[in-house]
Amino acid sequence: MRLTVAADYALRIVVHLSGLPIGARITGAELAEAQKIPKRFLLKIMRGLLAAHIIRSYRGVGGGFSLFRAPQDITLLDVVEAVEGPLLLKDCLADLTKCTKHTGGFCAIHQTFSVLQEKLSHSLAAVNFKTISQREVQLQQTKSMQLPKK
Description:
Blueprint: H1 5-18, H2 28-35, H3 39-51, E1 55-58, E2 64-67, H4 76-84, H5 108-125, H6 129-146
Antiparallel strand pairs: 1-2
Helix pairs in contact: 1-3, 1-4, 1-6
């Protein structure tokens, strides 16, 4: 399994928004610049996050984007699925008619991947953006302490 660039950017967007004070808004241009994401691509990704009720948008003067939910209520799984769709390691896990062996799920590979998909889903759902945001702050502080003084 490999996450797309869109999923990577979506994760970075939500980490950034999670680090802002509650209710703070940021424009798409500011977010794109801060996260080094092409603005057009950012806006496309934001549509998926909006539809999943992970972020909200505000129009007009003072508009921008903010989190729709508290960071502790948003998981890695929420963001990945908002951009990528449902987590699916093999097509037959969602639709038994797509089994290339035509066993209807009665094969060791299907059953093994079914367990792995469940574990991966649970693992991604167990990590929330409050935790990730706090870790990001720690990493940035460590980085700034290690940079040579000018």
